[in-house]
Amino acid sequence: MEIEDLLSADCILADFKASSKKQAVQALARQMALKTGLNAREIFAKLLEREKLGSTGVGRGVAIPHARIDGLEGVTGIFAKLKSPIDFDSVDDHPVDLVFMLLAPEEAGTDHLKALAKVSRLLRDKETCEKLRMTEDASAIFAMLASPTSAAA
Fold this sequence. Notes:
The chain is α/β, with parallel strands linked by helices. It has six helices and six strands, in the order αβααβββββααα. The protein has helices at 3-6, 21-36, 40-51, 110-124, 126-134, 138-146; strands at residues 12-16, 57-59, 62-63, 66-69, 76-86, 96-105.
């Protein structure tokens, strides 16, 4: 599974504005609803349900909110680079400015876990995150995320 299997170039938000974790998740759920045709409120509710189990703010300014949801064709994602970092209840208590949201079908099985692992490996790479933070262009961000030559891929 590659990043481009999860994410398309039109699902990169390079200058995303949100003032809180709830607002960010809600706005990204709306974007996912547009992409998938699913109900934004249902997506948001599933993501909040997952957040109650523990924050998906994984540290070093990165969050990977994710959920399983009925009616989805396959694992899909959206990436947002926030204009200003926000509190995300991260494990390291640092604010978040890079968010990769993943949704998977309820019956996705290991594909969901493989996708999470792939995104996590990519965004755990300090150099990749620094490059993402310095880039303003959505197509350049997509190229960085999808690049098979990335050290994190």
